[in-house]
Fold each of these.
Amino acid sequence: MQHQFDAHAANKLQIQNISKQFKSQSSVVQALSNVSLSIAEGEFLCLVGASGCGKSTLLDIIAGLTKPDEGAVYADEKKVDGPGRQRLVMFQESALFPWLSVLGNVMFGLKLCPDLPKSQHKTIAMEFLKLVGLEKFARSNTHELSGGMKQRVALARALAPSPRVLLLDEPFAALDAMTREQLYDDLQHIWETHRKTIILVTHNVREAVCLADRVVLMSPSPGRITQEFEIDLPRPRDINSIALSHYTQNITRALKGNQTLDEAHG
Amino acid sequence: MKRQLRASVFFISLVLIWQLAATSGRWSPIILPPPVQIAEYLWSAALDGSLWEACLVTLKRLMLGYLAGAMVGIPLGLLMSTSQFTEDTLGALALGLQTLPSVCWVPLALLWFGQTETAMLFVVIMGTMWSVMIATDTGARNIPPIYARAARTMGSDGWHKWTHVILPASLPYLISGLKQGWAFAWRSLMAAEIYVTILTGFGLGHLLHYGRELNAMDQVIGIMLVIIWIGLIVDKIVFSPLERLLHKRWGTGIIQR
């Protein structure tokens, strides 16, 4: 089943001329400098770059957790002014709440949806736990789960309130390779069936090529977008497939190019 | 079973040594009454009802004062955690007053409220609230920021954030703070009962005090034992289950017991 990304779809997210500085006592870091990007409804986009290129900061700004110094993010032509239920984040650490059971965690966001009847909370939460294959663990405590299972619960928690945009901040970075590969399959399946707009931040080029419609390269000091790659491969994709190599080679080369360029400037 | 057996052997030996020392004739029974005599006192006080009456009076005061102290301490602790300014002001105040032994409040309470229940209550609240306040603040300040971020993206804000994220996330600190507050409340009340003579209720502290006045050492030690028992029982039926629940949820407390 091949997903044809519709280039004419309305631009779901507009990132316009974002700049952001972080000041500490001793220095000023230009985390982002004049970054613009359009992301269409239902697109799977990966932000790739070395650490310090501002990719996580950009994700935070899209989420509304951080305010940009300049520029703005528009979701459906409305300016993003803070966190919103339409854009949910999944972090590198699962950030599950230890005081709640697995089910309680997945229900947390649902309980905050104003127009959802109370009777639906549990049903929907169980549905999403089933989707990530953890319905048997609904009553478990979060610390009883493995790292991969925790991230599945975090994914279910982010999906349950039905956000239109899913923001993933290196959610697979702390997992072992086997678990990670399983989650690539799961995520692709979920994206195909639920049609979310997904923005994934990663420093793993192969991961980006495996998952994304479009890979956006970023480069540090100042953080900016340097290049974009459309990934035109059939889905579902296998991380170990040879077809990915052509793209990963090009992107890795481009990333190294960025670095040598920076060193030459440095 | 084996654990309980060993513990019983330990305590029975302690009582036996005490009994032997008391009956050896080296010390006057006025100074060191044998355990049997203390048991006799407790038995008679239980039979004539004065012991139960005193326990009831004391526990009622303790509960009222402790709950009031915790209910004031928790919100103030949360308020204290909100900014540097509240930390520098409220925080410093709480820290200072927490180090003040609660018996120091007795003279002031007597002058302000006279020999009344209010004076008792005031001393217990002063003994409880500052430590609860500090524990709440510490708990709130030690929450991993990622919880707050995750909650914010899901739309948790304002009142919901405080009651559904910050308060439960600081539970590990809060519960040890409440436990410490309980111990402080106990101490404060005993100090108050020993020093504040009132007619509205005869508590354990009063029994202790009159035991001294009457040179009835069996009464003094007997009441001391009752105070220790109540402390242990409350720990076993209130705080231990809470702590177990917490460890189970959080997956902490790896030492097997």
Amino acid sequence: MKFARLGLLAFLSLVFASLFLSAGPAPAVLAQQPTPADDEVNAIAQELFCPVCENVPLDVCPTEACRQWRELIRQMLAEGKSEEEIQQYFVENYGARVLSEPPREGINWLVYVVPPLAFLGGAYLLFRAFRTWQRLAREPEAEAGSGSAPAAPPEDEYAARFEAELKKRK
Amino acid sequence: MTDTISPKKGVPVWAQVLIWGGLLGLLALVAIGLVRAQRPMLIVGAQVPDFTLPLYEGYDYGGAEEIALSDLRGRVVVVNFWASWCKPCEGEAADLEAAWRLYQPGGEVVFLGVDYVDTEPDARSYLAKFDITYPNGPDMGTEISRIFNRNLGVPETYFIDRSGILRYIKIGPFVSPEEIQAVIEAILLEG
């Protein structure tokens, strides 16, 4: 009798164990992705431009096309895409003109290189001009202070002679 | 009176060459850009440059996932630019589909829907809503639009004859399938 009960217990244990194992792992519970806020969407949208209306950033464009684009950004953010991945998607689909800043490649480099070079060149020219003007302003003072006759340009010989005569009479 | 003034130092020659060369180069670039921007739109009678349209899943052409204009030589091609955000496009969608169903069995005419700056989920909803069945795909990087020099808006439709010559341009929506049919018939008759 005791053996029969033990046998029954063992049988039931085996049945439960096989049922438990055959059930397999419990299905994974998928976490609900939080919907990205408007600020997160606009942070990316402001770096893109509407392709339909020229020169209007995507975050403020009121057209239906841009509303759809913002929703697409929201969807991609919810899928875990990074800002770079989203921008890359938009460039592939709509061209580089949607970017607020042209990509740093090819002829686009001119946009980044020429303005600073022009600024530096202009600053250098101004620096040289200021130095020349300073030198020209100081030369008469220095010559007056040294007591010698002021150096006159060769073409202004009359003025030089006039100045020399004045010195002699002093 | 022995004082002499040293000759005035100017900008070195190499710097002058560099500055003038740079300025001329920039002017040349601006000129090229202006010439390109003012290039005339693709006009009727011109050969249409080849392009390849990637097709949306379920909108393939004979099993192909993309279609090149050059593959369609010998057929009349109707290229329709549309977008899901475009309200006037909705007005002509059913007419285009009706015309396509009329010509599809003959195989002489192919319709291509070019989806202009659109998002795929909205585009697919639009295609399903109007039960559109002819080959459709996105204008990736707006490259096809630039071939046609489009800058007016959607919808626009271009009719290309059997030898790849642009024969008719429709700016704005069609008002009936008969309007589409009339243009196609005229091109088919011309050979």
